[in-house]
């Protein structure tokens, strides 16, 4: 398992009530499962609309189970933003 930092932005940050927190997970899917377990409710709903960056790289349409996480890495949780 990799130790990663999950960072929340905008609506995700408001729903989590923290800016970031540590998790241990091998894949993005495992990290998001742990996030949902820790924050049931509004954050779970917000995650359905989010995009994700892993160490600065967009996940895009890749299956979350296939996205490996590196020890010391960062998962950015990005809800849709209004404006430009």
TrEMBL record:
It holds the Pfam family ThiS. This is MoaD/ThiS family protein. The lineage of its organism: Bacteria, Bacillati, Actinomycetota, Actinomycetes, Kitasatosporales.
């Amino acid at each position: 398992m990799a130790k990663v930092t999950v960072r929340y932005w905008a609506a995700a940050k408001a729903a989590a009530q923290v800016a970031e927190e540590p998790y241990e997970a091998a894949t993005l899917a495992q990290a998001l499962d742990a996030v949902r377990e820790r924050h049931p409710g509004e954050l779970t709903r917000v995650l359905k609309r989010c995009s994700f960056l892993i160490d600065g790289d967009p996940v895009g349409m890749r299956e979350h189970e296939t996205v490996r996480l590196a020890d010391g890495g960062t998962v950015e949780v990005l809800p849709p933003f209004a404006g430009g």
